[in-house]
Amino acid sequence: MKGIILAGGSGTRLYPITIAVSKQLLPVYDKPMIYYPLSVLMLAGIKDILFITTPHDQEAFKKLLGDGSELGCNFQYAVQHKPNGLAEAFIIGEDFIGRDKVALVLGDNIFYGNGLVNLLRSKTDITGASIFAYTVKDPERYGVVEFDEARKVKSIEEKPSKPKSKFAIPGLYFYDNKVVQYAKEVKPSDRGEKEISTINKMYLDDGMLEVGVMTRGMSWFDTGTVESLDDATEFIRVLQNRQSTMIGCIEEVAYLSNFIDKERVKKLSKRYGKSKYGNYLKEIVEIIY
């Protein structure tokens, strides 16, 4: 399975802080936002990852992340010229995906919880599609899934004005290779975007959509607003300081996933100088592991 991180968009809900910098490069406590969704794909065991950015932000992402080889990965980059919808990611990434299956994660989404690694790795050989549902107070901001009494999916709607449930669909999706063809068939919605909910409906109509409800032990943050960005920062700060472990540390994830060895981690730690992040990398190779 390959992975795509969609890190485009204009981030207008975060203006003025995103006028000059990509939303996905903003800090969430002690690291760039993009580290969190990247670590999720790496936790799933995915090494081949495509970053889809705006034209003017791409060089900044390349400067930050490089080609991935230092992490034992293969990073590639592509451009989404306009925010034409999430489904367009599979059209832009068609050559990258090839004949493989693909996971898509949004660059402003953060996931954390017990059992997350096992959950992610259980989806990498998916036949059909696998998405998730998470209860929220403001479902009208998201794709919404409606269940019947037997927890069977009844409907999926994109940002409905009157949501039929409080189950939002987080920005993490797993698909087989059919998704590329489905994406090509998607027509722009009334919002002028190729909606990923339309792809999910296609899989649902084919009887090939799996929807898992994230348990209370899982946490999900969509950092698209100032309030949610602040909530995510506070969440990461409290957890890290209490547990003395880092969330979204891509070098540690690479090491634990056997992408790189201890010596590589030690070498990479020098990049971060005397920062808290750099000191943590030194500690994990000298003390923890």
UniProtKB/TrEMBL annotation:
UniProt entry keywords in alphabetical sequence: Magnesium, Metal-binding, Nucleotidyltransferase, Transferase
Annotated coiled-coil segments of the chain: none
Keyword Nucleotidyltransferase annotated: yes
UniProt catalytic activity: dTTP + alpha-D-glucose 1-phosphate + H(+) = dTDP-alpha-D-glucose + diphosphate
Disulfide bond found in the keyword field: no
EC numbers on record: 2.7.7.24
Domain Nucleotidyl transferase: 2-236
One GO MF term attached to the UniProt entry: metal ion binding
InterPro entries: G1P_thy_trans_s, NTP_transferase_dom, Nucleotide-diphossugar_trans
CDD domains xref list: G1P_TT_short (cd02538)
Cofactor(s) this protein requires: Mg(2+)
Domain of life: Bacteria
Family: Belongs to the glucose-1-phosphate thymidylyltransferase family.
Free-text function comment from the UniProt entry: Catalyzes the formation of dTDP-glucose, from dTTP and glucose 1-phosphate, as well as its pyrophosphorolysis.
Protein name, as recorded: Glucose-1-phosphate thymidylyltransferase
